[in-house]
Amino acid sequence: MRKHLKIIEINRATGGQRFANYLIDLLALFAVNFVISMASMFLYEMTSAYFFYFYNNGGMVWEFLSGYVISTVYYFIWEYFSNGRTLGKIVTGTRAVSIDGEDASTTQILYRSLCRLIPFNAFSFLGENGWHDTLSQTRVIDIKKYLADRQIKEEIEAIGTKEIA
Questions:
Q1: 3-state class of 141 per DSSP?
Q2: C-alpha closest to that of 91 among 163, 24, 5
Q3: Contact between 96 and 138 (Cβ < 8 Å)
Q4: How far apart are CA 47 and CA 29, in angstroms?
Q5: Mind giving me the DSSP string for 1-17?
Q6: Measured between alpha carbons, how far is 63 from 61 in angstroms, rounded to an integer?
Q7: Which of 97, 106, 74, 111 is closest to 145 using CA atoms?
Q8: Which of 56, 86, 149, 160 is deepest in the core (most CB within 10 A)?
Q9: Eight-class DSSP state of 125
Q10: pLDDT digits (tens, 9 = 90+) for 2-51
Q11: Percent helix / strand / coil, the chain, rounded to 5
Q12: How deeply is 162 buried, as exposed, middle or buried, from its count of CB atoms within 10 A (0-12, 13-18, 19+)?
């Protein structure tokens, strides 16, 4: 069981920041899908392989399935390699961390990515925490506020300790 730190809860990202994260990442996902669609059209023209034709003409079920796969991979890769950040989080100055203040683990990032597949998850952040935050035991924090509060806490704890020059 992870220790739930109060400093993480105090410095959670605002609803506005979370919404901006969502919109920016959604635009990035549209761009990724556009690039994949163009590449598949080009590859179909070059190879006549049916898979590349199917990517753009597979129907509604295929679109949902491929969209889910692309978005899961997008969020996992960004948060794994960018230390809990996606393109949206980089722009808004936020980051996903574990509730114990540590970096989110690979398992937590995978859970966050997979939980985004839950219907209506995108609107769950309008409450206290998003479902992908609660189920993965992570929180999205405002980095600047968190670092300032952590520095103050460390300075208070350092009072009375002997300084070495």
A1: strand
A2: 24
A3: yes
A4: 26
A5: -----HHHHHTBPPHHH
A6: 5
A7: 97
A8: 86
A9: G
A10: 788 899 999 999 989 999 999 999 999 999 999 988 888 888 888 887 77
A11: 70, 5, 25
A12: exposed
